[in-house]
Amino acid sequence: MKEENDFKMIAKTIFGLEEILAQELQRLGAKDVEEHNRAVSFSGDKGFMYKANLSLRTALRILVPFHTFTVTDEKSFYEGMQSINWEDYMDVGDTLAIDTVLSSDLFTHSQYLSQKAKDAIVDQFRAKHGERPSVDLDKPTLRINLHVYNDTCTVALDSSGESLHKRGYRDKTNLAPINEVLAAGLVLLTGWDKRTNFIDPMCGSGTILIEAALIANNIPPGYFREDYGFERWKKYLPFDEELWNLIFDSAVNKITDHKQVILGGEISPNVAKKAKENIKLAKVDDVVSVKICDMKDFEVPPGRGVVVINPPYGERMDKDNIGELYKMMGDTFKKNFSGYDCWILSSNMDAFKNVGLRPSRKIALFNGPLECRFMKFEMYQGTKKTHKLEEGYQKKKRQD
Questions:
Q1: Do 49 and 65 touch, CB atoms closer than 8 A?
Q2: The pTM is what?
Q3: 156-188 pLDDT, tens per residue?
Q4: What digits encode the pLDDT tens for the residues 266-277?
Q5: Domains in the chain with CATH codes
Q6: 35 pairs with which residues across the strands?
Q7: CB of 221 within 8 A of CB of 251?
Q8: Which of 305, 370, 313 has its CA nearest to residue 338?
Q9: One-character DSSP codes across 222-234
Q10: DSSP label at 302?
């Protein structure tokens, strides 16, 4: 049930992670949770807005929509922005930044609309006070988000500031690092139980391993961030430091200290060094370790577990080499990873054919602009047939 102090919010995410994000929100206690394309809407109070920014692993931004208007052309857009009393949200000495997302045939350039919106706001202040707020793209008092869908413009405040994938623990990256939100999404999509082994034998700068460790030990993904957009708000939902400290301390008190086996392998000594530095910055070096080795030589701990790999997709490799790499992954799964659920993320559908295994699941995701598939390969202990027989026997036993 919606409380009096509740308001609508929108959590933006990566295509393919909407369901996982909705589940995260429900577990946190959000109300009115609804999935959309690359977004999930929900409602909650100011404290929940703080909690969502601190604790959601698969959200990129938390937006607070507060005004909508109809647009037909540039003039109606400018007038719609001017119809808002901006003094309810900021002072003339404050700073602003505007991001625009377009899903409309009426306009072609999002940056141009951002400029027009800025003009409307500063013109309003100049007419009233003879001076105007300035633009600050890095840490503005207000980051305003505009979404123009067909002929409707939704105006929202961005409570996150910098994108939430910027956790604050990573300062060493190799080429093409995976986004932290996507890395967390991959771990959550596997359904890993946080107790069995977790392995990334091509770990790069260690992002997937770090996100797995944060998930396993209930460490809030925003724990390392220096600031959020809502901390600069003065008028609309003004920042409540006491409430924020209460929410932060409550989340920190829920951190656990399980000693999972989280292992990485990396063939490049230089990249492995970066991964180790990132793991240390994220304060999970007590549960995550990285070995310098080729995937085929990786020492796999016995038992069950989950493997997640974000291998090269082949943009900088020739066709034969990429085919050989994916064949090696499939062969190594069969030979060394018995009892594990093995997952690969890639945009290279041809390379996937070289794995030589039939996937039991295929999930569509985007890694930046690249459309990918996240594929699951189940490595049964013994043959698949004996595994199924055993499964049937255990089921019958439970029924008896």
A1: no
A2: 0.91
A3: 999 999 999 999 887 655 555 789 999 999 999
A4: 999 999 999 999
A5: 7-158 (3.30.2130.30), 180-220+256-386 (3.40.50.150)
A6: 40
A7: no
A8: 305
A9: TTT-S--GGGG--
A10: S
